[in-house]
Amino acid sequence: MKNKKCGTGNWKIKIYTLFSVFVFTSSLSLYSETKKENQVLDWDNGRKQFVHKNVSIEELNLKSKTNYILDHFSIHSGLEETPMPMSQLEGNLKYLTLGYQLQKIEARWKTITLNSGSKDKITEFYPRVVVRVNAPYAYSPTEYIDSKVSLKNTALTIPPSEFNGNWQSELWFAPKWDIPVLSTFAFERIIDTAACPDAIYHEYTHLITGKYLGNNAIGRSLAEGISDYYAASFLDHPVLYTHKTCEAVKRQLLVSTFRLDREIGIYDSSIESDFKKDFAFIPTLLWSYRQIVGTDLADVTIFQAIEKTNAGDRFFPEFINTLSTSLYKELKKRNGEQVATDMVQKVEDSLWIPHGVYSNFSRKKIVFSYFPKTSVIVPNSDEKSSEFCGIKNELEFYWKDVKLEEPTLRFYWNCNQVKIPLVIQIEQSNPINYLLQSNLRFINGKLKFASQSAEKPNPKLSLEDQTLYLQMYQYVKENYFYRKTMEKEVRLYFDSTTDTNRIENIRMEFAYLGNSKKRFRYSFSPFNGGSY
């Protein structure tokens, strides 16, 4: 009987023990559910994608025990004035990734500036940059609609604005949106770029470029191209804004991949005024530059070019020229003059020129290097103008002012003591057409009045000279210009010997001005065979 009772007691102990173990393990499970893991997205260079990585709050190097504040950033929710409270950070992949990646891109830029020899502490912002997560909109479907842009933007760099005597920049990251009712995987168009490290890199770079290119450069082709370039360079990966660089994009079926390793065409100057025409040209060309000169040299020299670029400068020719100069100086300092010269020439011949851009190192290969460097006066070959001109009847061409940056030839028709200003605007939209090539025989221009109010003579002229001026104006209008456009086609021909890269004579001909072959043709001697 005793043994039976003892057996019963052991059975109860076993049941109690098993129950205790079950309760303990269940409580652990419940605790693990409430205890959230802190993770960020970090780049796996081998897999070429961002993966989840466990971090501790301490690794973020926060500057506050109560709010989300970093060295040079304060992170806010929406338009809240106070930075996000710490209680919202735990287990939030997006918020943690944002702070983690902001510090990584900040450290990378600090290294670049040190390697470039810059003395500017451009990664230090005082007061801190305000970063807004869950902003009401960056570009939302209701606030921004542009038929030219298939990919709507959900991140935005706000240029600095003054507040209480300080200049403050802001980065905005808007949440995703989808089409009402049709909220299925195929229609989820936009994701919150606060969780996209490549987008974070892009927006941070705007803070750097804005200091040199000017606040108004944000949104223009040069600043946008540079931001995309550095985002790709920091990843060492030429593909951006995909599910591998931002996992939330994997359900974004209506957004195409943005690649910097594709073949691109020839530079078109219109992208300077409307970057929406071609998002890829500038960053792709800079990526190709990186492949030729190497990562470190490309990142450093592109930044050096940014430092020396003035607000309002264009990608071509100003930025390209500054970049080639930076490359030459940096390589000369590191490896000597010959290495620098060879590398610059390699970049010019294999990259810049084939894509329609070039620097001062290739100026001898463009037609402007052959243009006369002085003013040239020639007799006016229009016999009829002699009827109301006195002794002086000549055209004075200001060739010395014609250059790549301003391809306009100014000249005066001097009739007696009266001058009427005219211009010939050379109209090659593609700069590669200025290069001396075997098929280059001429370039076109349009003859126009230099003044928009050319019909009004200078009131300081005598009444007699004002009458002469009006006669000259009417004669040019009726005999030189097409009636509808008020302009005339002019062609500059380049006569060369068997050596197609050497011009022997420059001829200028006005189109369709009578039957006489001698009229309206002018010849000019080139400048020293095209060398400086």
Automatic annotation (TrEMBL):
The chain crosses the membrane at residues 12-31. Keywords: Membrane, Transmembrane, Transmembrane helix. This is Peptidase MA family protein. It comes from Leptospira montravelensis. The lineage of its organism: Bacteria, Pseudomonadati, Spirochaetota, Spirochaetia, Leptospirales.
